[in-house]
Amino acid sequence: MKNNINRKNVVLIGFMGTGKSTLGRQLARKIGYDFIDTDLAIEEVTGKTVEKIFRKDGPIRFRSEENLLARKLSARSGLVIATGGGMVLNSENVRLLQQNGVLIGLKADPEIILNRVRNKRRRPLLRRGNLRENVERLLREREGAYDMAEFTIDTGKLSFGEALNEIHKYLKRKGHVQ
Ligand code: S3P
Asked: In 3D, which of 171, 165, 164 has the Cα closest to residue 150?
């Protein structure tokens, strides 16, 4: 049996469309951790889609759900957590997630992100207006916002398998996983 106490959470952070959910799910499978996608967890708790929370209750409500979730998750271990792209804009969330977690950054060039977020109905911040303009503006506004990650990979320059391996290798090197 693995000792749960030492199994720090692996927290994937980064902009929308950088691959947090897809990679996170596979990484969890690979290292035998449970997987949490914060957007899905919030949808479960509230019984509403992220899109509906933004539309009906507003962004502040969504951010407060994220904060509540960060508090809950900071008390757990052995999780791979794929965060929503805005989760770490709140410094308290960063502190909470770092408490028992390793923050891994995912990034990609704007063109790659654009291609990956074409299904914008799921993403309230990208719904209105011009998709390219929205992505470029948010990327500018959030420049440096994910820099607290202790290790970052560019998912646009690696294949899915390579990205997975890079993260796994890093976690092994640091002694977080076997
Ligand atoms: C957001 C990113 C989304 C989701 C919400 C807000 C953001 O998650 O949490 O639409 O502020 O960047 P993904 O990064 O999984 O798309």
From this structure: 171
- Stronger pLDDT, 69 or 1, i.e. the higher one: 69
Mean of pLDDT values over 74-100: 97
* Contact partners, residue 125, CB within 8 Å, separation at least 6: 16, 54, 86, 134, 138
Any ligand 1 atom below 6 A from CB of 123: yes
Q: What is the reported pLDDT for 120?
A: 64
Closest Cα to atom 11 of ligand 1: 86
Give the up-direction half-sphere exposure of residue 19: CA atoms within 13 A in the CB hemisphere: 24
What is the distance in A from the centroid of ligand 1 to the CA of 86?
6
> 10, 26, 53: which is closest to 149 by C-alpha?
10
Question: Which stretches of the chain are assigned E, i.e. beta strand?
Answer: 9-14, 34-37, 79-82, 101-107, 151-154
Determine whether the shortest distance from the Cβ of 37 to ligand 1 is under 6 A: no
| 16 CA from centroid of ligand 1 (Å) | 6
